């Protein structure tokens, strides 16, 4: 099952400075890591960006946070957006382990540091020194490229390059409609205080539907998904299923962008005790119940 989380480029719009904005993004990345999110997607919300910490800043810091610590210096170097990455909480992501007898071992990210003759390359994958590996016949790599390494033994070192997606959290940038339209998107949920309230019964129903994938979208501080999409809040919960009612009784006509493809509008913090639930808090509150199994 593929799990995707969508956050807006205006995610840090209320941050007073770069340090606070960086710390906020660190907790977003940590929530995604804890609940084994596969993709963390930043979608554009140009109208909500403050100009200081927009799309480029948000995606860069999140991609840095998702990079294994042993690769960060080599992969990123010095960048203005990364001035305060020292405040990022450690993700401590667990290694992905193979289960087949002929493919056992843990998957790790590596960076190709040198391409040599006869299909051999040197790869930094977090061991004491870069290791020399054979490139599979149907695989081409270049210096500086990130690759997936399967390590079956550390002493002595036994490892090989594998043509598989990079393990860990992937951070991407794309629009809502594209993200929701992917084949592996599964059940697409809009997290909103105006959605239908999550109950034990609804959670049981959802648990039976998310086996093929789950995509959850969140809004920004003081700018939830209804504002971002140009939807009147009263048009959201008119349908008892929690889906967007495009013909609400109040006559509100949603904009064309108002229906990007959500299956359900869901309120995962019913009767909230604070006027505002921050996006990073909403991630924890939403992903925790949705990660429960039947």
TrEMBL record:
Pfam families: Methyltrn_RNA_3 (PF02598). SUPFAM superfamilies: alpha/beta knot. InterPro entries: Alpha/beta_knot_MTases (IPR029028), NA-bd_OB-fold (IPR012340), Put_MeTrfase-C9orf114-like (IPR003750), tRNA_m1G_MTases_N (IPR029026). This is DUF171 family protein.
